[in-house]
Amino acid sequence: MRYFCTYFDRNYLSRGLALYRSLVRTCSSFQLWILCMDSECYECLTRFQLPHVRLISIEELEAADPELQATKATRSRIEYYFTCSPSLPLYLLKSGAGIDVITYVDADLYFFSDAEPIFTAFTGHSIGITGHRFSTPLLHLEEYGRYNVGWLMFRNNQAGLACLAWWRQQCLEWCYDRSEAGRFADQKYLDEWPRRFPGVLVLEHPGLNAAPWNLGGTVVTQTEAGIQVDGQPLVGFHFHGFKRIWRWLYDPNLSDYQVQGSMVIRRGIYAPYLRELAAIEEELKPLHTRTAPVTALKRGTGDRLTVGRRENGLSRWLKVGRRLVMGQYLVQVNGHVL
Fold first, then answer.
1. Per-residue pLDDT tens for 64-120?
2. Predicted confidence (pLDDT) at residue 252 exceeds the cutoff of 80
3. Nearest-angstrom CA–CA distance, 299 and 260
4. What does the buried/exposed string (b/e) look like for 282-303 if buried means 16 or more CB atoms within 10 Å of the residue's CB?
5. What is the pTM of this model?
6. Residue 137 CB: number of other CB atoms within 10 A?
7. Cα dihedral: 83, 89, 95, 98 (round 10)
8. Rounded to whole angstroms, how far apart are CA atoms 182 and 233?
9. What domains can be seen in the chain, in order of their start residue?
10. 55 Cβ contact list (under 8 Å, min separation 6)
11. How far apart are the first and last CA of the chain?
């Protein structure tokens, strides 16, 4: 049995459900805990009655962690979400649920193949993290953290619990959506882990937590067995900043990281995710759930959420045309992605 946890609100419902469905297809035995950050998310997921899923309301977590709740008034909505990041897996490991290893995943991560090779590599370790693996032109982005919060593993032992407790304390003291004094949201703290705690494994698998910020330095190919990244199976892709900008036009957020979208990237990685989201959003419509269809907040340079600014007029359409030519935008026509 593999144990996962994530959190999201109503705006990320379609993404969270896509994450769940990808797990159903790729993992033979799992339990997924979902921390629902608002009541609409909790009520909607309760109606779905998803197998292998356990729901946690934000009120339940706050009741178990009053110090966490006390920070709520001092943080923006998204900053409070970041502050919850360490509290959720720590709460689960201490819950008595018999969890040996808890894996936290961001809600916009999507599984393409079985993650079992990652768990095998984690054998004998207590803490698992993934680097951003920035290509050379993007190394300046390490200001926001060398490691990414999108995939984290914690064993239920002294080192794993100590790491979570330390991270939680740091986030309670300071967790803001800005870079300041060597800190950034909940993420920059991860830079300290390999030095501070024993048993830390930096997971180097190129197909794990693949994302727009590391595609530029990799070779992505389509094989009979599926998508491969640098010759290894694509395990999970982090759809950072993916959003709709027009009825038929989508921004996969490749341009921010200087990536030209090849046919394999567009049709092999982004097209299946887009189809999954579209199908889920159709299922959500009868529930009258106030969700943001493929337009939610996006995680910024350091993979924490920022709000994109809209552009108008000729400059916007010139940029659209340029990015279409470079494969940095997706066009959906009659269910097909170009």
1. 999 999 999 999 999 999 999 999 999 999 999 999 999 999 999 999 999 999 999
2. yes
3. 20
4. eebeeeebebbbbebbbbbbbb
5. 0.90
6. 11
7. 180
8. 34
9. 2-203 (3.90.550.10), 242-337 (no CATH)
10. 33, 34, 36, 42, 45, 46
11. 38
